[in-house]
Design brief:
By secondary structure, the chain is mostly helical. The protein contains 5 helices and no strands.
Length: 133
């Protein structure tokens, strides 16, 4: 008698197996979707945090213009020298073409180079601007 009961239980289990497999697959797909969503949320939060750090750094004195030359203009003039084979003697000429007097450029150039060496956030901002120029 117990043998018949076990055979019936086994038959019931085999009949239920496809439904259980489908349910397991569905749960696996849901878990994967949740993992993707969590990763996307993490990436968004990381980008927001990086942006907040950069905005905080931009508010610092190291991002103030030097001799009237903001970091954006410094990056643009610095990138302009590429057209002249990276000849540093051309920098004052490029600056002048953008309305920056030679004395102001000399002061700004030295000041920005010093800040870039000293402050990693300034260096990162310069790098982004230089690539975009």
């Amino acid at each position: 008698m117990w043998m018949l009961k076990r055979m019936r239980d086994m038959k019931d289990m085999l009949e239920a197996a496809p439904g259980m497999v489908a349910q397991a697959q569905q749960l696996g797909a849901q878990a994967q979707q949740m993992a993707v969503a969590q990763h996307a949320a993490y990436q968004t939060l990381a980008a927001q945090a990086a942006g907040a750090r950069l905005r905080g750094a931009e508010a610092g004195a190291d991002f103030d213009p030097i001799a009237g030359v903001p970091i954006e203009e410094f990056a643009t003039v610095s990138k302009g020298v590429a057209a002249f084979g990276y000849d540093p003697a051309k920098l004052p000429e490029i600056a002048a073409s953008r309305g920056i007097q030679e004395a102001a450029w000399q002061t700004a150039h030295q000041g920005w180079v010093d800040r870039i060496k000293r402050n990693r956030a300034v260096a990162q901002q310069f790098n982004q601007l230089y690539r975009a120029a």
